[in-house]
């Protein structure tokens, strides 16, 4: 049986990775939806749903593999999903709206060194997803995917050996009950941390170059506490796995 | 009837809270009854959704900065964690406690919701005075709505039944999104200067019965007539609140060139 402390630890670390990852994702919210702010034009919850769930599906597809492979699967899945979202968003901003991807938070893009301020339309907070935001978003997706994968792995390993869950084995020896319970619990922890992190950000952020990124430590602390409580509830799941 | 007469006093939070807790728990407790049990459990979930919509309406009217859906997703996430943890706790405590499982679910979710809101207030520094009380209510409403629909499908609220027929089949993922939509959509759709609680709650009843109809399809049995009744009431109220509703036709032909 899995050590309850290891489970709590895995969920806490996973939760912090998720909450930290959200700080990297260029969330533009409603202003970005009308191309008056940099980032993807939707809220954190939607981006977390897209990136997080894809990451969990790719992580869960590797159930039974070594831990590093599950974490890599989650990271790659989440990053690809966010990458596609940002790429297609940029296509719409450039060819649909007709604006240049430009950040209003920095004078020069820290990665490409291109000048930004000249291209920011007066009266807006930037538009589109410039290179630095894109790279930041990919990092955020990877962190979130690793966190989600870690929570899924810890819960699945803990639950699948319990008598209550070993009755629903598939042909390949995967416990369906444990896999689905672990997955939905991981999705739950994902959303709690994503929303707590987005409360910390205050709605919109461009990425690691945004001045709001300085709030990161406070967000990480909030996520540590929230995930720790979720970890305690997960121990109850382990204790009540005999049915 | 003028708009002033139409705008009746808001329903008190204590009434929606009582509706959600009592309706939700009674529905869930009656779920093992054969034939009508699932219907009663789903009706309990509907009560919980209306309670959740009333709570989200109060907290989100302060402006969360992240939109109405985010707190809806968060509370449903808390609710699902609470449902899993609460059902497992009842098993851990022993067979005599299985009867109080739904109460443990409700209490555990509300505690977790309250703690997350406290973190939001103390650590993150959010300045919404009713954040803690409303998130606590929302978490409880979410948990009861998920447990109600799960009990409707599983035909009972035992961990074994729910793991086999709701978790393993993946319906829980559907409930996550379905109940989030049912709870957050009413206020998200109605918010604005002319928002009125009774109208928002009528829309909450339509989304709740709509979700129930989907659960009904999953449990083989249709309950969509309740959706029609509440939708009709919501539309009538919307027409009443509007200054006028006219069909303007398509734009004139000469403007099209």
The biggest beta sheet of chain A is recorded as:
2 strands, antiparallel
Oligomer: heterodimer
The residue fraction in helices of chain B comes out at over 70%
Unreliable residue runs of chain A: none
Structural class of chain A: mainly alpha
Characterize the biggest β-sheet of chain B: none
Number of strands of chain A: 2
Mean pLDDT of chain A: 88
Question: How much helix, percentage-wise, in residues of chain A?
Answer: 55-70%
Rg of chain B is 20 Å
Q: Please trace the helix and strand order of chain A, writing H or E for each element.
A: HHHHEEHHH
Shape of chain B: globular
Strand content of chain A: under 5%
Mean pLDDT across the residues of chain B is: 84
Shape of chain A: elongated
> What is Rg of chain A?
19 Å
Distance between the termini of chain A: 16 Å
Percentage of residues in DSSP E strands of chain B: under 5%
Number of helices of chain A: 7
Structure, described:
The complex is a heterodimer of chains A (243) and B (257). In chain A, strands 1-2 form a two-stranded antiparallel sheet. Chain A contains 7 helices and 2 strands; from the N terminus they run ααααββααα. Chain A is elongated, with a radius of gyration of 19 Å. With 243 residues, chain A is mainly alpha-helical. The relative contact order of chain A is 0.22. Chain B contains 10 helices and no strands. By secondary structure, chain B is mostly helical. Chain B starts with a helix and ends in a 16-residue tail after the last helix. Helix content of chain B is 73%, strand content 0%. Classes of the chains: A mainly alpha (243), B mainly alpha (257). Chains A and B meet through α3, α6 and α7 of A and α4, α5, α7 and α8 of B.
